[in-house]
Amino acid sequence: MQHQEIQLKTPDGRCPTHVYHPDGAGPWPGVIVYMDAIGWRPAMMEIAERIANAGYFVLLPDLFYRVEFDVSNGLKLFSDPAVREDMMKRVMPSASPGNVVRDTQAFLEYLDAQPDVMHDKIGIVGYCMGGRLALYVAGNFGDRIAAAALYHAGGVATDAPDSPHLLAPRIRAKMYIGGAMEDAGFDQNAQDRLSKALDDAGVDYTLEMYAARHGWVPTDTPVHDPVAAAKHWETLFELFDEALGTGVAQ
What we know:
Radius of gyration: 17 Å
CATH superfamily: Alpha/Beta hydrolase fold, catalytic domain
Largest sheet: 8 strands, mixed
Number of strands: 8
Number of domains: 1
Order of helices and strands: EEEHEHHEHEEHEH
Strand content: 15-25%
Shape: globular
CATH topology: Rossmann fold
Structural class: alpha/beta
């Protein structure tokens, strides 16, 4: 496993980014991991590293780089009202869809410049906030994104005029959506709305609901569910295998 932390230049500054890829000769399919709202931390690095170990060249960018943010406060999102208010009003808006789409152009340009990356097919995966952002990315980059996975994402199909599900006609990726139970951000109405948009657009996708709480994948959340997380890995690698190909076995 090869790993380095770089300062990736974007239109808005420099984005700290972890880069992981397998040992040995590439090229490897490229994957971008969009973090959850808790932030850029070891639990997300574990996810990126495991994807890389499965045969991918992986970027894990810090989407909160535009603001000062103590990542050690991230898990207090669940218990500290002051931290939650600051994150909702100041930190999370810094990773707006528009900002992250601009960042993603820089991420893709970086991947395009790497000799160890297969440049024709890029995969993305996002968790929670990152799942919603991944849907925006899939819709904004069309043919560049061959595979897109969303896990316990919320806000993907709302009444808002800029809801990401409205980008479905521009999506060319094969998709997997894993929803959480009793999730106000992805209730039955949102599920139906997203499915209809994807069906109408002819998107190749799978939508499954998990018997797990919102945020079940990262190992450091209060609702981490090992069984559901294991299924997440199975579905993620199946998607990437089919849409991107792999370099090595998991």
